[in-house]
């Protein structure tokens, strides 16, 4: 504030006006000063002393989990392919017409033979035979073949007998024990596969005693046999090939469930005569449902042991004669047959000069020689 020291009134009025203007100016609200540009706000001391960190990487959104994670697959290392193992060659199968060349058969027998040869050929390929056997044996109920061919079972057996008579096949009903009862579970078919076989088709002992249908009891109680399967397939028009595939599958599957150990196309013609003698003695106590099959199997094994497989039917007849003599209490019988086998085994062990084993055994089975056998 200015101080007045003189007597000039004009100067005094000017000072008073300036003082009033100053009072009015202080009483009015003054606007806040604008914040200076590029001036940072003061930070706390702790924040100022904190070391500067690298900025964190932005977080990736969470991925939805799936059954297969989305990750990079590992690099694949390509190696040279190893040489494939040589496949087992399949034998060349003759046609059914070539097998029965020169044989006169009925029309139904020809149809049955065609079907059996086709099934045998497919099974030989399925079982990977390296050498074609003279005959191949498989198990299939006769009723399945009858339904497939459109015949009844009795007529089919007449046709099968016609084929067996000329040496094209061998067959026989097969039984097994179900819940203490002997029941027929199907038919064994031995089908010749070569036009010049060393011997006629036959069924071996192991094949007679083998359990070809391990699930037979379940099929019997559930009525799921081959007859129902074939009938269901053949009711539909054009399903003949499907029905044939069902037959082939049934043969292959049941053999896979219970394979026949040691089943080879080559058969040794040596046999233990001790076991044969025991089998002959056991025929008297054999159950009637298995008796025919056991006699056929024993006759087949005996014919092979004697080196004359073509005389299988002849030895089967001799076994039936011995069984009847056993029932009637006559001289010889099963015991005489077994003693003749024991004596033949002794001769072989002593290296006796024998030209024909079958002829020697046959001579010892005559009624007049039966007393001197044992």
Give the C-alpha Rg.
51 Å
- Tell me the number of structural domains: 2
Q: How much of the polypeptide forms β-strand, as a percent range?
A: 5-15%
Low-confidence stretches: 35-41, 45-51, 65-88, 261-271
How would you describe the shape?
Answer: elongated
pLDDT average, as an integer?
Answer: 72
Question: Numbering strands along the chain, what is their spatial order in the largest sheet?
Answer: 1-3-2
Write structural notes for this entry:
This protein has 16 helices and three strands. With 374 residues, it is mostly helical. It has two domains: 177 residues, no CATH class; 107 residues, no CATH class. The radius of gyration is 51 Å and the shape is elongated. About 13% of the residues have low confidence.
Topology summary:
Elements lengths: L8 H19 L17 H5 L46 H4 L7 H20 L8 E6 L1 H8 L3 H13 L3 E10 L2 E12 L12 H5 L6 H7 L3 H9 L5 H18 L15 H9 L6 H18 L6 H17 L4 H17 L7 H8 L2 H4 L4
Antiparallel strand pairs: 1-3, 2-3
Helix pairs in contact: 4-6, 4-10, 5-6, 5-9, 9-10, 11-12, 11-14, 12-13, 13-14
Summary keywords:
single chain, 374 residues, mainly alpha, 2 domains, 3-stranded antiparallel β-sheet, 16 helices, 3 strands, 7% strand, elongated
